[in-house]
Design a protein that fits this description.
With 321 residues, this protein is of the alpha/beta class. The protein has 11 helices and 13 strands. The strands form 4 sheets. Strands 3-2-1-4-5-6-11 form a 7-stranded parallel sheet, sandwiched between helices. The chain has a two-stranded parallel sheet with strand order 7-10.
Length: 321
C-alpha cells in the first residue's frame, strides 16, 4: 500500500490522480475529510481507505509493515498562519513522527518542504544542503518547513530513500478551495469573469516596473510527475527544488490568462498592502540542476502552455484533475 497525506488538498489530490493514472489504486489517503469544499478533489478517485489525519499516526504505527511508500503532502499551508502552536503540531511534529516511522520500517518517503524557506532570496535559490542552515524564511510557515529540514538532516536513522521537495509557485486544478491562498491565475480568472480586468501590485522596488515582479510559476502536473519519478527511480536521497527554473512576471501570467480566456487584456496596477511591502519577494527562480542530475529529463510546462491547459481544460468548466 502507498500513502498520500493531504489527499483532499490541492497537490495531494493531484498526486492521487497521478497514481491512479499509473494504475495504482492500493492507496491509503489521509486528511481532514469533513471539509465539504474539498470533496470533489478526491471523491471520484480510486483508493482503498480514507483515514482522518488525527487518527493516522496511530494507524501508521500499527500498519507500517504493509506500507511501501509515503507521499507526505499534508500541512498547514497558509503562509499567513500566525499560530506557531498550530504549525508546530501539523507541520513539524507530525512530519517528525512520519519520518521516524518510515525510518524504523524502511519505508521510502517523499515530503513537501517549501521555497518559502528561501525568504527574500538573499542567499539565492540553490538547494545545496550546505546552504540550508543560512536560510531565513520570512513567515512562520516557511520557518516550520525550514526547521523540519534542519532536524531531519541531523538524524542518523533515515528512510531507505527520502526526498524533501521545495515547491515554488504552484498553480493548477484542484485549488478551488484555497481562497486567498489560491494561485494568482485562479484569482485572475475569477476577477476577469466578474470585472473584466485584473489588478496587479505596483512595484515598490527600484529596477522592477509595475507587474514585472518575477516568480517561478510551476504547473501542478509537473510536480506530480517529479514526485512519481523520484519515488519510482529513487536516485540520491536529498532536498530538491521543484520549479521550472525560469522566472516569469505577473504581467506575463495575467496576459496569458486573458489570451486563454479569449478576452481583451485589461490590467490595472493597485497599491500593495503596507503590511506585506517589507516582506514581498520580487524574484524567485528555482535552481533545478540537482533534479536534472538525478535523471529527471521531462520538460516542464511553459507558463503559456500551463495557463492555457489550466484555463481551457479545468477553470472554464470548473473541472477537477
Amino acid at each position: 500500500m502507498q500513502v498520500i497525506t493531504g489527499a483532499a488538498g490541492f497537490i495531494g489530490s493531484c498526486m492521487l490522480s497521478k497514481l491512479n493514472q499509473e494504475g495504482i489504486e492500493d492507496i491509503v489517503i489521509v486528511d481532514d475529510f469533513t471539509k465539504k469544499d474539498r470533496i470533489n478533489n478526491w471523491k471520484n478517485k480510486k483508493y482503498i481507505q480514507a483515514i482522518d489525519r488525527d487518527d493516522f499516526l496511530a494507524w501508521f504505527k500499527d500498519n507500517a509493515k504493509q506500507i511501501t511508500a509515503v507521499y507526505h503532502l499534508g500541512a498547514r499551508s497558509a503562509t499567513t498562519e500566525q499560530s506557531w502552536e498550530v504549525l508546530l503540531k501539523l507541520n513539524l511534529d507530525y512530519t517528525k513522527t512520519i519520518w521516524s516511522i518510515c525510518s524504523d520500517n524502511e519505508i521510502p518517503l517523499v515530503y513537501a518542504s517549501s521555497a518559502a524557506t528561501y525568504g527574500n532570496g538573499e542567499q539565492g535559490y540553490d538547494d545545496d544542503l550546505s546552504k540550508i542552515e543560512s536560510l531565513k524564511p520570512l513567515n512562520l510557515y516557511g520557518k516550520s518547513k525550514q526547521e523540519f529540514d534542519l532536524w531531519q538532516l541531523k538524524q542518523t536513522k533515515r528512510p531507505p530513500f527520502w526526498a524533501g521537495l521545495k515547491f515554488f509557485n504552484v498553480y493548477g486544478p484542484n485549488e478551488y478551495h484555497k481562497g486567498s491562498m489560491a494561485s494568482v491565475i485562479l484569482h485572475s480568472f475569477e476577477q476577469i469573469n466578474k470585472e473584466g480586468k485584473v489588478g496587479l501590485f505596483r512595484s515598490y522596488k527600484e529596477g522592477y516596473e509595475d507587474g514585472m515582479q518575477l516568480r517561478d510559476f510551476v504547473y501542478v502536473k509537473d510536480l506530480v510527475e517529479v514526485m512519481y519519478f523520484l519515488m519510482t527511480n529513487r536516485p540520491k536521497s536529498d532536498i530538491y527544488n521543484v520549479g521550472t527554473g525560469k522566472a516569469r512576471s505577473f504581467y506575463d501570467l495575467a496576459k496569458n490568462t486573458f489570451l486563454s480566456m479569449e478576452k481583451q487584456e485589461n490590467i490595472e496596477y493597485i497599491p500593495m498592502p503596507e503590511m506585506i511591502r517589507d516582506k514581498y519577494q520580487y524574484f524567485t527562480q528555482a535552481n533545478i540542476q540537482k533534479l536534472i542530475n538525478a535523471g529527471y529529463k521531462k520538460p516542464f510546462y511553459s507558463l503559456e502552455n500551463g495557463v492555457r491547459d489550466y484555463v481551457r481544460n479545468y477553470l472554464n468548466e470548473h473541472l477537477y484533475y
